[in-house]
Structures are given as C-alpha cells and as structure tokens.
Amino acid sequence: MTFTPTDYNAYDFANRRHIGPSPAEMEEMLRVVGVSSLDQLIDETVPASIRQDEPLDWAPLAEHELLARMREVAAKNRVMASLIGQGYYGTVTPPAIQRNILENPAWYTAYTPYQPEIAQGRLEALLNYQTMVADLTGLPVANASLLDEATAAAEAMTMAERASKSKARAFFVDADCHPQTIAVIRTRAEPLGIEVIVGTLDQLVPGEVFGALFQYPGTYGLVRDLSIEIAALHEAKAVAIVATDLLALCLLKEPGAMGADIAIGSSQRFGVPMGYGGPHAAFMSCKDELKRSMPGRLVGVSVDARGNKAYRLALQTREQHIRREKATSNVCTAQALLAVMASFYAVFHGPKGLRHIAERVHLNTVRLAEALKAAGAQVSPEAFFDTITVEVGVGQAGILAAARHRGINLRKVGRDRVGISLDETTNADVIARVLDAFGIHEPAPEKVGLGFPEAMLRQSDYLTHPVFHMNRAESEMMRYMRRLSDRDLALDRAMIPLGSCTMKLNAAAEMMPITWPEFASLHPFAPVDQAAGYTEAIKDLSERLCRITGYDAMSMQPNSGAQGEYAGLLTIHAYHRARGEGERNICLIPVSAHGTNPASAQMAGMKVVVVKSAPNGDVDLEDFRDKAAAAGDRLAACMITYPSTHGVFEETVREVCRITHEHGGQVYIDGANMNAMVGLVQPGAIGGDVSHLNLHKTFAIPHGGGGPGMGPIGVKAHLAPYLPGHPETGGHEGPVSAAPYGSASILLISWAYCLMMGGEGLTQATRVAILNANYVAARLRGAYEVLFMGNRGRVAHECILDTRPFAEAGVTVDDIAKRLIDNGFHAPTMSWPVAGTLMVEPTESETKAEIDRFVTALLAIRDEIAAIEKGEIAAADSPLRHAPHTVEDLVADWDRKYPREQGCFPPGAFRVDKYWPPVGRVDNAFGDRNLVCICPPVESYSVAAE
C-alpha cells in the first residue's frame, strides 16, 4: 500500500478552531442555500462593483506560534514599580478573581444583560458594584460603570448642564484635576458651546458657572474639604461634581458628606490591572433627584412572574437606542467585566479589608514623606492620602533617571518637581529604592501618624450589606462566583445570535496574553522606551487594519464603538474647521441607523437630519439627494452602516458617497457590520472617509457582559492630521479618552486574532459568516418571512425575521424571545431596526449542529404559534406567554393548558445539560415604578418569596 500523507492541518486555527462548520458541513449547507459553491454565494451576495481587488495575503500563525510571538513582544516591555499615579495605580488582583472572573469565559463571553432572565448573575454582580460605589461616595444612586475617569467627568459635565437651574454657559474645572481629565472635558465642551474655565479654587465664581468639577484627592495629592465651595455652588443653583478615589474614601470624608451632587472616578485600583491604560470601569453616583439624567446603564430590582426578586436594567428610556439624538449620552458599551471584577474585589476584602489596604497605602506614604522631610526635602501638600510632590529644582531629570535605574517610575511635574503615588503593591523595598534615588539611605520611620487632619477622617459606615460580609474563605468566594455565573447564559453555553453584535469565538490563545504582567502591569504614561512591545503590537495591528479597511491611518484611542463614532465625527468637524468651513454642521443619518449614531452626532455639535428608508430597507436615494442639496454648504457628513442595518449590501452605496462628496460633506461608514466585509470590501475604497471598527465584534474582543470594547477609527489621508491627540503624546486635536491608546491591553486580542487567522483566514471567516446567515434564512423559509434581501435573494451576515404577523394571534416578539430561553438560547436582536422583528446573526464561529439546534427551536416555536392561530390554545395560556420556564415551574403544581414536558423541554433544548433560568419573566414596568438600584436588604427576598 502506498503511503499518502494527510492534507489535514491540525494547526490551522482559522479553519479548524475559529470557523465553526467543517468543509463537509459547508457542502451540505450550500446545497440547502441552493448554490454550488461558496464563491457563487458570495458573487450573489456582494455586488461586484464594490469588491476589493487585492486579497489579504499575510500568512497565519498556529496557536503555539502566536503565544511564542507574544512572549517575544511582551519581553520588549519593561515593567517597573509605577509610582506615577495620575489616576492609575498598581493593584493586586486576587488570584481567585483573575481565574474565576477575568479568565473565565462564563463571564467574559456574556452579552449586555438586555434579556434579564438569563443575566441574573452578572446583574447581581453589577448591583453589588453600584452598592459599593454608592456607599463609598456617600451618594444614593450609582450606575453600572462608564468607560474611564476622564469620559465620566465629561459625562458629568453634560449631566450637570441638563440638571442645573443656572443660566450660565460656563463650567469650572479645578486645576488640580488630572491633566487627561481636563483635556477630555475641553474636547467634549467645544462642539457643545460650553466655556471651560480652569483655575484654582479661589478663582471659582459660582454665579458664573452651571457646574464645577473638583479632584479629591487632587492630582498632586492635596486632600481638602470642599464643603464651602459646594455650598456656594448650590447657592448659585450650580451643580457640584467631585472626581474621587474609592480606596481613599475608605479613610477620607466622602463627597456625599460634603454635599456633592455627583461623584465620578475609576475603580481600576480595585483589582483591575493598569494594562497600559485599560480597560477599567469608571463610576458615577449622584443624588436621587438626578438619577433620570444619569448616563449609562443602571441595574435595578424588580420582580418576576411569580413575584420573586429579579434584577434588570432600569430606566432604559434614557438610553441612546430609544431617545437617539435626545439621549442623555451615546454610551452603549460600558465596562461591565471590569466593574464585576471591582465589585468582587470589594466582596473579597469586605470593608475591613479595604480599610486595611487604604491605611497601609496611606501610612506608607506618610513614612516616605517623613523620610524625605528628615533629609531636608521640600514635600507638599501638607494633607495627602497616597500622593506627594517633592521640590527637586534643576535636579529633576537626575532624580527621575536615578529612580528608573532602580526600577521605579516617578511623575515629572512641571520643571522642578517630582510626583510620587504609592499603591497597594508598594512595599518597604520600593520605599527604600525611592529614597535611594534621592540619595537618602536612612530607613523610613516605622511609627507615623495621619497625613491629613483628623477632621477629614470618614465618620460613616460603608459596605454594610451582607454580601460584603461573607465568609472570605476562598472556597466560599469561588462558590459565590460559580453560583452567579451559573445563572447566566453566555457564549460558553450556547449560540448568541444577535444581529449587528457579532458574538463570535473569543479564542483562549487570544485571551491569555492580556493577563501576563509584561502587558497587564504597564502604566499608560510610562516612558515610551519601556513600552516597546506595546508600540510594536499597536503599530502592526494598525497597519493590518488599514489594509483590511482601505484607510490610511488609525487612531486606537476610542474605547468603545460609540466613542469611535464620536471621535470620527470630531475628526470631520476639525477638518471642516481647518478649511474655514466651520459652519458645516448638518449630518444626514438614515432612519434605520444605530441609536448611537444620532446621539454621537448631537454630542459632536451636529444637527441630525433623518433620511427615509425605501420599502426594501435601503437608504431612500431620492430623499438622500434632496436633503443633501437642501443642506448645501452646511453639509458636514452622512453616517451610513454598510452592509445596511437590514443585513443587505446596498447597490447604491457609491452613489450615496458621491452625493455627499459633491456637496462637500464627508462619509462616515459605521463599522458595526464589518464582519460581512473583511477581505471582500474595503469601506475606504468605496467612498468612506472615516469608519470606526467594533473590535469587540468583528475582531474577537469578547463582550464581557456589556463591555469592554474598543472602537478605533480609520481615516483617509486628508483626515489623518485631525485624529484625537493626547496630553501625554501630543497631537493637534484633543483626546476623547483618558489614555492615549484607550483600553490598550485588549488590542492584543484583536492583534492575536489577525495573526492567527492570516489574511486568507479572515476572508474565509467573512464568507462563512455570510453562508451561515443565508443557511438560517433558507432553513426558516416558509415558517418566517425574511424581511430584506439583496437583488439576488441573498442576505449578508444577518437576516431579519418578521414576527409582526403573529400579533394577530396575540403573540409578541417578546414571547418568542423568552421562549427561546427555554430552548437554551439567547434571543436575537429584538425590534431593531424594525419594531416587532428579530435580527439573527449566527457568525462564522457557530457549527452547523448549533445552527440546526437554533433552527429547530424556531420551527418548534412556529408550531406553537400555529396552534394558537388554529384556536387550539389561547395565547395567554400558551407556553409562549409563560416562558421562560424555571425549575420552580417544573416542580410546582401544574395547572397549565399544555404538557409540563412541552413547557420545560421544548425541541432544541438539551435534556442533561439544560439551562434553567433562575427567574421567570421579569416585570420591567414594576422595576421602573419602584426604582431600587442598590442591594436590597436580605429580608426583602424572603418577603417576595412569600
């Protein structure tokens, strides 16, 4: 027998690990779709007029090769003891949290908890986070996180403008705020016509501003009571905002006790690595009367169908997907995974543990200050928590270099001072090395007192809820984390077929490097020569993304998709202004656009003009042409999504771009649907001037239960000079995020994805995503109408199922979504872009078996609807209306008009490994009428159960 070597490559990551269907399964699927090959399907789906000529041609790396490459790059970063501060601190991530949360796909592959019945675990963790923030800041309402401290400050400024009774148009910013915070506030204020006044507290004139932002403790360390300034602002009907530090508040008087209206900050030092800038969860809390103006997500407590306590996202009517340009903000991606980490850090340590850590950090800082003073150094301020500043005169460069030589980074302050911020990781050895850099060899004193007046000591209790007083044995902590994750349905359990959200594989090899200390422990403002590994990774990723998109330059700063939209529009605005065309302020946006699009345009100072959709879902070209002409020389931009929000490659895209350019506008192409384009179509080659890329969609960063995300923007060469800058790295324009490269550490995930897939693998992923969507559409033909298709009867990477006809039988899209939970699936995107529909996106990572299971579930649901249509059962009595079914339903007395088996084990559901939702259908209206946004007392659970 002649030996024939196999052509199977076990290390082919793209085709053996990332892409779900096997070649044989693809052949079966293509037959169902009705084409002879994948090439034929793509030709029938993607218009030839927009296809790219040059293929993506870089070779792929196997998983083990990728990890070896990552090790080489990581070794080029130099991790030192970072005492730079400025809002970023070394922290100890408890190993139990690192392994069971950050590195656990049950937590990092979950989606935003819009379906609360299958998200009770992460909603509880986020409610713990809100309770922690509310307690520590002394304000009663907190949200479930924002992007970073600087953007939280900017959100607080616009929130203050909405809430203030003052008629002033200026906003005061304490000069003692972090420089990046001041810069982001200036960026946000300029297009909104808000005057920003930066000054010292004695320069604050309360009657001339609608609000003010203070830093507490200050960026250079100062601790001071702000009660007098806050009272003066209130007298002038202005709003007081305090940017603060949660660890400091374990010792210091809280902002609420000073009368603050809003508190913001970062929870990074609660166990979340610095990661060269992120991701980290920012926080915001406020007085009760301001809660409906608060941006971002708010977790609230409601009840389910049996009256049991259940968590949900509250007051969603404030959000951008509902209010569009009238929304409180464009916040879409939050930092849920990092907020969960920070909340578990507080549960893990409890109030006593946090107090111990805060005292240790503070007393170490006092020891260092006393040693410096004893040697004759001038140390300020007199009252501090963890940060001091030392006068060094002309010796500044020498001191900084001496510290670096000893493995320590200090902060350069002005021309003659050095800033030193201690943290949880600082030990006696680090203090000794700092003193040695100053030429001081006497040890720091052991016995010291407080570094601030006793009047500034916190008097109130915090973290009093029982969840923060659990037995802290690791066994108990591990089980608590497991219990919460078991309540959720994430991508590690089942397909999450969300249209426009692209819930694809987040491979283990892509995730592993982000927790390596060489990447995780770098301060974002560390000297550039210490971040050579990051520089290489970011440069290479940028170049590959430019090749993929057809753009000439990338900004990696925006740390969410909505931030990317905002940054792209600001870039367009700056371009027009530089050309003397600052009057251009009209933005044309199709009615079907993501809700973040009009919200972002409003934030960028643009006037939104809505363009109609044609009956087939395309942009109405005549309406677009008329409105572009009417805008004339005031046309700034159009924002379109491609392929369209309806899941179709519109043939008219080049014409839309041509019309926009003819009137002097710029074309913004929303990158939400880039998963249908990679390797096939370049937005920058079909007329786009700028696009953001959702790296947490197309490029494999996991959703993390609602964040983190990254939304870098690609631009054509003429816009490149107007990309976001940063105080630490320069640039012509202001920053949109706190760190120069946003959430830099998770860029590594997308880089790893591009390297392992290779150019051909990325293109094949796009092709299979289109195949999977068309297979779903073909399998469901006759049971559900697919609303929009291209001219040749094909959908792109997603399809919209019309469930509106079932309303005649009393069946709602909600009923279908909740019934899918019984089958073990997250619902597709509901009622968007068309109310009463389901938008399905299977992605390339789903296997044929999982897609078939999903189709089986939808067909069984259709049969249940048919039974209602035939009069065999009333909609109110059907399993659709009672879904989802819980274990409590299973064991309770069964008085329903359908069999127990049908209700609890519908077709498509696993029997042995069935997912059981922890609560029944959640009452949203009850939760909004009875708003509770912190952990309710334990006894309230038993009352609800009775």
Helix content: 25-40%
Oligomer: single chain
How many helices? The count is 31
- If you compute it from the alpha carbons, what radius of gyration comes out, rounded to the nearest whole angstrom? 28 Å
Q: Within the largest sheet, what's the order of strands?
A: 2-8-7-6-5-3-4
Q: Summarize model confidence as the mean pLDDT.
A: 95
Indicate the low-confidence ranges by residue numbers: 941-946
Q: What structural category characterises the helix and strand content?
A: alpha/beta
- Cα-to-Cα separation, first versus last residue: 75 Å
Main β-sheet description? 7 strands, mixed
Shape: globular
Please count the beta strands (DSSP E, at least 2 residues each). Answer: 26
Hey, roughly how much beta strand do the residues contain?
5-15%
Structure commentary:
The chain is an alpha/beta fold. Helices cover 37% and strands 12% of the residues. The protein contains 31 helices and 26 strands. The strands form six sheets. The protein has a seven-stranded mixed β-sheet with strand order 2-8-7-6-5-3-4, sandwiched between helices. Strands 16-22-21-20-19-17-18 form a seven-stranded mixed β-sheet, with helices on both faces. A four-stranded antiparallel β-sheet has the order 11-12-15-14, with helices on one face. Strand 11 and strand 12 form a beta hairpin.
Quick take:
With 946 residues, this protein is an alpha/beta fold. The protein is 37% helix and 12% strand.
